[in-house]
Amino acid sequence: MDDKRSWRSSVGILQNGQSWNDVNKIFPQTPASPVMVNAGIIVFIATIFFIISFTSPYWLVSYHYTYSSFENMGLWEFCFNEFRYPQYQFDRKFDGCNYIYSEEYLIIREWMLPAWFATVQAFMIIALLSSFSSLIIISLVLTRLPMQFTIRYEWHLTGIACICQGVSGVSILFAVLIFGTSCFRRDWLLNPNFNYLSWSYAFAVFSGGIHAFGGLTLLHETYKARDRKRQATNLLHNEPQGQLGPGIPMEGQVYM
């Protein structure tokens, strides 16, 4: 119903041959609410922590005093120190840091990438896409570009950004839970008691919490933006018609 009223209002404004530029001169651009600005800052900080965690190879690290052949790993990179895979019949050493899908790890990729770890990667990719989508939508709302579209559908866009934040938070939650409960399995990396969860994993947990907080902030702003639109729509229909259409006064006209 609100969309129909908004559409009719837009038609009424333009029915006398006036352009949106004429309307913008009478109704100046309204800035985004402070809550939306704060939500944008929160989401931006969460995304920064998430990107650092997503790209850094320090989710799981070996204690230095153990002299383990495994050194550290992340979602996309493993580091070894003259590691020999016991089930490989040839004397092949894996040394240094390499991309998990590189040709160097082709022989042991199936062992390095079990189903649960691939699931962690999938959840983190979903969280990355959702986080960037939310940032793009929030940027459109904050900059009011394009103005007519963002003002007309502000609460819809804010709601979509809120959903994206929720998807990011839930995906990160599943990823850190699966990794935290499975990374010490003895059928994966050798000597799991030599390893510990490091700062990249902590950044993922922290970013998940910030994403959840950002989602709650956007949820609050969604309801506020919807109420503002309803009030503006009611005011527009209750005002007398002027030269430019319903709700827009003619030059020099004063409402009593």
From TrEMBL:
It is found in: Membrane. One of its GO terms (cellular component) is membrane. It is a multi-pass membrane protein. One of its GO terms (biological process) is septate junction assembly. The chain crosses the membrane at residues 35-60, 115-143, 155-179, 199-219. Gene3D superfamilies: 1.20.140.150. Keywords: Membrane, Transmembrane, Transmembrane helix. It comes from the Eukaryota. This is Uncharacterized protein. It comes from Meganyctiphanes norvegica (Northern krill).
